[in-house]
UniProtKB/TrEMBL annotation:
<dbReference type="InterPro" id="IPR010203">
    <property type="entry name" value="RraA"/>
</dbReference>
<comment type="subunit">
    <text>Homotrimer.</text>
</comment>
<dbReference type="InterPro" id="IPR005493">
    <property type="entry name" value="RraA/RraA-like"/>
</dbReference>
<feature type="binding site">
    <location>
        <position position="98"/>
    </location>
    <ligand>
        <name>Mg(2+)</name>
    </ligand>
</feature>
<keyword id="KW-0456">Lyase</keyword>
<keyword id="KW-0479">Metal-binding</keyword>
<dbReference type="GO" id="GO:0008428">
    <property type="term" value="F:ribonuclease inhibitor activity"/>
</dbReference>
<feature type="binding site">
    <location>
        <position position="97"/>
    </location>
    <ligand>
        <name>substrate</name>
    </ligand>
</feature>
<dbReference type="GO" id="GO:0047443">
    <property type="term" value="F:4-hydroxy-4-methyl-2-oxoglutarate aldolase activity"/>
</dbReference>
<comment type="similarity">
    <text>Belongs to the class II aldolase/RraA-like family.</text>
</comment>
<dbReference type="GO" id="GO:0051252">
    <property type="term" value="P:regulation of RNA metabolic process"/>
</dbReference>
<dbReference type="GO" id="GO:0046872">
    <property type="term" value="F:metal ion binding"/>
</dbReference>
<comment type="function">
    <text>Catalyzes the aldol cleavage of 4-hydroxy-4-methyl-2-oxoglutarate (HMG) into 2 molecules of pyruvate. Also contains a secondary oxaloacetate (OAA) decarboxylase activity due to the common pyruvate enolate transition state formed following C-C bond cleavage in the retro-aldol and decarboxylation reactions.</text>
</comment>
<dbReference type="Pfam" id="PF03737">
    <property type="entry name" value="RraA-like"/>
</dbReference>
<keyword id="KW-0460">Magnesium</keyword>
<protein>
    <recommendedName>
        <fullName>4-hydroxy-4-methyl-2-oxoglutarate aldolase</fullName>
        <ecNumber>4.1.1.112</ecNumber>
        <ecNumber>4.1.3.17</ecNumber>
    </recommendedName>
</protein>
<feature type="binding site">
    <location>
        <begin position="75"/>
        <end position="78"/>
    </location>
    <ligand>
        <name>substrate</name>
    </ligand>
</feature>
Amino acid sequence: MTTFSTPDLSDAAPEALAIELPFGNYGGRKRFSGAAVTIKCHEDNSLVKACVGEPGEGRVIVVDGGGSRRRALLGDMLAEQAAANGWAGLVINGVIRDVDEIGATELGVQALGTVPVKTDKRGEGQRDIALHFGGVVIEAGDFIYADNNGVLVSKRPLL
C-alpha cells in the first residue's frame, strides 16, 4: 500500500472533499484507500454482511447508517471476513463493536463510535447508491482516502 497523508492529498487536490464527521480510527490498518462500494442501512447490517463475503479487491465499503448509535453495523467476525477477502476498509456513518478485536485486524475501520449491541437482521437497505452525509455525496466508484486526520472523497484517483 502506498503511504499517504490526507492533509497532503487535500492540499494537492482541493476538489477532494472531507467528510465532516468526527470519525474514530478503529482498525488495525490506520491508513487505507480504495474505490467505494456504498451501502445505506439503518440498524440492520445484512447488506454489510453480504458485502464483506465478496472479493474486496482493495475497495472500501462506505456505510451510511444514518449516524445511529443504537446498533453496531460492524463487529469482529465481519471485520475478519472483510480483511480475509481483501477489502481495504470500511467507513461507517454509525457505530461498531468488538473494538479490541477489530484493532488487531488488518483492516481500516473509521466509525463514529462504539456500542455493544448488535443489529437486527431484516435484510433491509440499499447498495451502490449515492450516499449523502457529512457534507458530501459519495457514489459507488468514488475514491476514498482515510487516515488519522479524517476521510477524503474524490471523483478521481489521487495516488
